[in-house]
Amino acid sequence: MYIHEFSDPGCQDVREVGGKAAGLAQMTAAGLPVAPGFAITAAAYRSYLQTDGLQEFTRGVLDALGSGRDQTAFDDADRTISERLTGVPLPEAIANAIRAAYAKLCVDTGVDNIAVAVRSSATAEDSVGASFAGEFETWVDIVGADAVLEYVHKCYVSVFAGRVLSYLAEKEIDPHAIEMAVVIQKTVRARAAGVMFTLSPTSGDRSKIVMEASWGLGLSVVGGEVTPDRFVVDKVGLGIADRTLGNKIIEYRRGDAPVEVPAERRELLCLQDDEVVALATLGKKLERMHQAPQDIEFAVDEELPAGSNLILLQCRPETVWSNAVRKPAFDAGAGMMSWITGSISGATAVPAHTHDASHRH
Amino acid sequence: MTETTPGSAARFPFFNESTTPAGGEGWESMYPYYLVPSEETTEHENAQFWFADTMHWSRGCHPFDSIGAEAVYLGVGTFSTRIFALPVSLGLDVRVVNGYVYISPLGVEDPARIQERVAIFQERAGYYYANWDELYGKWKTKMEGAIDSLRTIEFPRLTEYDPAEVVMEARGRSSAMAVIENYHRLIDEFFSIWQYHFEFLNLGYGGYITFFQFCKQAFPLISEQSISRMVAGVDVLAFRPDDELRKLAALSHELDLNPIIAGDSGPDAILAALAETTNGRTWLAEFEAAKDPWFNYFAEYGFTHDQETWASDLSIPLQGISRYAVKIANGEDISRPIERLREERDEIVDEYRALLTGDEARQFDELLGLARKVFPYIEEHNIYVEHWSHKVFWEKAWDLARFLVDAGFLDTAGDMFYLNRFELDMALFDVVDSWAIGVPARGKKRWQAEIARRRPIVAALQAASAPPAYGIPPQQVTDPFAVMNYGVTTERVQDWLGASDGATDKLNGIPGSLGIVEGPVRVLRSEKDLPLLQPGEILVAPITAPSWAAAFAVATGVITDIGGMMCHAAIVCREYGIPAVVGTGFATARLTTGQRVRIDGKAGTVVVLEPALETETATEAAPAVR
To answer: What residue stretch is flagged as signal peptide (chain A) (predicted)?
Structure first.
């Protein structure tokens, strides 16, 4: 089984499709809007590595490193492996399955040669508990079946990139424990995009949903290249508590290079109130599904009609505040009278958890 | 005197730097000496921060009416300082300046004394919290007893000869003795009632504040409105008078009486016209039934002798009924959706509760329970004290005034209120004593001349509005009661200080009730102006009382000079879903009727959208001293 559409129940098997694809499948199953697409399973990757003795080859190269564990050694290994892997195309059965799935995506969306994103969705043997977020690449605006195959192939090769090898070595993970599932998904034509936390990332307040968004793709927000617009929504009642205009100097219309945002559009909030509320509603739903605060990437697709143009790109548990130990306002061991005494004595409670709320995407 | 060095925080003028409005000179002589700033107390006064209590006295007060300032702050003081021993708060010191009441929170700073007070407070307040419902039940009985006692007060008129019963019942003392005795009872009961008022109030606020602080800690960005919405009583006594009006409006509509009730021929003519038809008589019976006690309701807070109750000026409730009746006729549903409000409240609570776990969730439950236990008192006590008790108090005061007119001592009853309570005690003794001896009262000319002197002084004081504060502002306003009840926060005080810098297009206040609205304002300085309010206007007033609720059916927003998020304007506006900004300090002075403003009940801001027609600088606030 090389292909799972997001709506296939099998696509929720994180071991076979990786966390990214499983997350998208869960969201699809819950009726949450994601860009349409499919996953290429870990089975496809395994089957590729079994072609032409590739796995024996890679194992040989890595074993030969011995104790030479510096970056130069990893880069040399990278070159050797990628030269070999690049010369071995995907097996016909896998390539055909991907071509068929891509063709079906074109039909389903009504777009010929639809531009897609090719996103790595690494998975690993159960014994490996690590997260690979940020280690592997994503390519957007890939057009046509041949190009899709080319980037899936690149994705496979990227497992042995020098940078990745050194990361895995540091974590003492055997690169062969990693399996590369791949997500193929319509490239979102983002009028605006951004990030949403289902709590306040600066105060940890769980009764707020905070989103930051800018024009174009979310790259500018995640990469910190703009000061995004900021919206604060009450989780209870879904009222917009605050809107702050950012400084949105550039935008990514395509994945390649940013362009300047015209002056008049910098002065406009990139999300309408109804979009903010609809996104917050989705955030609330995701938090309930996962029973924990979430960190969500979203976009507003300009190719899709209003009302169905909000796309969730990614959802993962928020980790900074969620893992902090939360203390109640008053000493749980003392009685209510001591709480009242403190309160009327103007002893303003100190937040029980204060730390730098910076976070990475 | 505290020096303010250049660059340090600005302060407000000291009392001895205040300017008396033209014609108001000599006001100091009208009030008991301890209510007036004096040389002996200057050092203390100039070290304190004083803010105007325009919540209770929105106008300069008559000498007699300053009894309220005595009673209220005697009550606060005894319970905070001496009875419950609030750990860091003593009472509120009080002064009358240019006729307006100013108060100053006094704190405890010595750690050893705080510790001592903590122990006493926990024991004593703990007893009240533990037995709240039972003691609140007893409180109602005490209050009803005090009101009944006030009702028995009489001032028998002086006759040529004492009544025959004095002899036949061998009473052995003149019936005229009752005049003096009952005057003292009137005063004493009033002070008692204000003791009872504070028996529960600060403890109630304490319970509420504790829940509030819990929420602020658990949800650092939560709005004050969200917290108060979780606590809000939906079906409390405070809403009964207005509910009665709605009921009567519905009945009027049902019985086809709207054309009569909406007439502008005055209450007497309206009631007479109603008495002529069967339907009208049916309605009148309901109207009569509602009157006692629900119309014993001041249009403001009942701290001045010249305020009307609904019962004393039936045009107020009739106007409210008529406004509701028009809405019903237009097909609007005016019923307060108690079920829906309660469900909404419970949903909000459930959602916030679901965000908490473990100890936090347990504390939330416990403190919400506490807040809900104490909240009915916070919402209901005004009915008993400021409305029901004050109504009888002023009725009896007016009866005493008429006694003095009947005795030939005063020309008109209203003159009595130009004397303070001690002067009145002297004058009464003079009247009774002179009658007994058989001579004309010795002070008649003396007091009438004094009243004639005071009349223009009081008029001049009342024509001016009160600067929001005097003295040295605290770095931080920490007194939770000043914040909760009066809306005096650190930010507000800074706004007041900056107010003379010329920023006139914006007023900041306390977010009272959510929502944003734009419209022309109607500035009302007294409840007597309420009929002027037109549909679509934003009501601007020194303070609004719950009894203004029918006006809220017409107003699209409310702005007040004073009040916190727990003040009645805020509570009632939230209830009726009208945006409100309270505690702005200057709204009645700054805004002129007809000006368009935008109010944001969430941010607590009022933005002036167009300048006033006249360019007069309306603010009479004293400039900050830098």
So the answer is: none
- Residue B373 has which token pair? 């236990």
**Chain B residues with beta carbon closer than 8 angstroms to that of A343:** 206, 209-210, 212-213, 480
pLDDT tens readout for residues A92-131: 999 999 999 999 999 888 788 999 999 999 888 665 655 6
Alpha carbons B221 and A208: distance in angstroms, whole number:
8
Taking only the tens place, the pLDDT of each residue in A322-338 is 777 778 888 888 888 99
Torsion angles phi and psi, residue B49, rounded to 5: -110, 125
Which residue in B478, B420, B481, B486 sits closest to B447, CA to CA? B420
DSSP state of A188: P
Q: Which of A206, A342, A346 sits opposite B355 (nearest CB)?
A: A206
Q: What is the mean pLDDT of chain A?
A: 87
CA distances in angstroms from A81 to A84, A85, A352, B233, B276, listed in the order given = 5, 6, 51, 72, 106
| Confidence band of B161 (pLDDT split at 50, 70, 90) | very high
Are residues A241 and B223, on separate chains, in Cβ contact within 8 Å?
Answer: yes
Query: Which chain B residues contact residue A341 at CB under 8 A?
Result: 87, 118, 121-122
What's the one-letter identity of residue B516? I
Amino acid occupying residue B171 = R
What are the φ/ψ torsions at residue B325 (nearest 5 degrees)?
Answer: -65, -40
Round to whole Å and give the CA distance between A102 and A144: 8
Q: Among positive and negative, which fits the CA dihedral B404, B409, B414, B419?
A: negative
The ipTM is: 0.76
Residues B513/B229, Cβ–Cβ less than 8 Å: no
DSSP reduced 3-state for A313: strand
Q: What is the pTM of this model?
A: 0.75
Element (H, E) at B521: strand B516-523
Helices and strands (H, E) in chain B, number of each type:
22, 12
CA distance B114 to A248: 54
d(CA A216, CA A229) in angstroms, rounded, equals 13
Q: Which residue has the tokens 């107390």?
A: B41
DSSP state of B11: B
Out of A204, A234, A345, whose CB is closest to B88?
A: A345
DSSP annotation string for B147-158: HHHHHT---PPP
